[in-house]
Amino acid sequence: MSYKFHQYQVVGRGLPSETDEHPKIYRMKLWATNEVRAKSKFWYFLRKLKKVKKSNGQMLAINEIFEKNPTTIKNYGIWLRYQSRTGYHNMYKEYRDTTLNGGIEQMYTEMGSRHRVRNHCIQIIKTATIPAKLCKRESTKQFHNSKIKFPLVSKKVRPPSRKLKTTYKASKPNLFV
Amino acid sequence: MPFKRYVEIGRVALVNYGKDYGKLVVIVDVVDQNRALVDSPDMVRCQINFKRLTLTDITIDIKRTPKKKELVKAMEAADVKNKWENSSWGRKLIVKKRREALTDFDRFKLMLAKIKKASLVREELAKLKKQTKA
């Protein structure tokens, strides 16, 4: 599964000067599509929090963070701040996925579809893996059932590869499962 | 009209699209409405969309997200391989695979066998016709 958004750990500090021999080192975990964008985002956020810019700072490390257990399903809670047409709002959203990157990607696409918010207008405040008891949203809680059972209501027969796709078919398909 | 095949933990499904096309996998957990966590003795556990699965009639008795060893044991206990290969769906897939792998010489042999079979049938038919005429 290739995800659009990767999680990076970015570490940087202001440049050392005569007044400050050992400036404080700051570390951020953020999501970006590639390392270059991650570094840029790091400076963007750090500028807002501390009196340091890319021009008087140095990048110390950037590492990609990979999912520890991509074979287990987790409930992710994402706190975000986004810009709508009329102002900034905070939101808390929950997603079920095997990896945090997958959950983040779900969040970006959902924000785009439900609220027409573009990717660059979203700031991720915090993410957490939520245990099942503390989930707030019904749409994630409905899957917390060890004996889950539901039928697939309609079966669309697809050609097994895009190459075998045809525009016209001789007959209407039977969608019964 | 009620449904007979359900998405449930332990349902065996056939992958009908993508990299794992043609594999039999077991639904081990449900991620959400569209995706399931799926596992098979010869692959890493992964999530797959229901659109890429076709449910079969076979189910095995497992708990939610079992260990690989328990999964293999449960699959042996439910005899998935034999059930699949003896089912009409499974047999049809095996025949299809065999036909795809025929060489030209095999097809020639097949043609001869078909002609022989047809001639035998026609012989018997001629005998029966003669009997009814007589």
UniProtKB/TrEMBL annotation, chain A:
GO terms for cellular component: ribonucleoprotein complex; ribosome. Keywords: Ribonucleoprotein, Ribosomal protein. The keyword Disulfide bond does not apply. The keyword Kinase does not apply. GO terms for molecular function: structural constituent of ribosome. One of its GO terms (biological process) is translation. Belongs to the eukaryotic ribosomal protein eL20 family. This is 60S ribosomal protein L18a. It comes from Daucus carota subsp. sativus.
TrEMBL record, chain B:
Transmembrane segments: none annotated. SUPFAM superfamilies: Translation proteins SH3-like domain. One of its GO terms (molecular function) is mRNA binding. It holds the Pfam family Ribosomal_L14e. It comes from the Eukaryota. The keyword Ribosomal protein applies. GO terms for biological process: ribosomal large subunit biogenesis; translation. Coiled coil: none annotated. InterPro entries: Rib_uL2_dom2, Ribosomal_eL14, Ribosomal_eL14_dom, Translation_prot_SH3-like_sf. One of its GO terms (cellular component) is cytosolic large ribosomal subunit. Keywords: Ribonucleoprotein, Ribosomal protein. Residues 45-117 form the Large ribosomal subunit protein eL14 domain. Belongs to the eukaryotic ribosomal protein eL14 family. This is Large ribosomal subunit protein eL14 domain-containing protein. It comes from Daucus carota subsp. sativus.
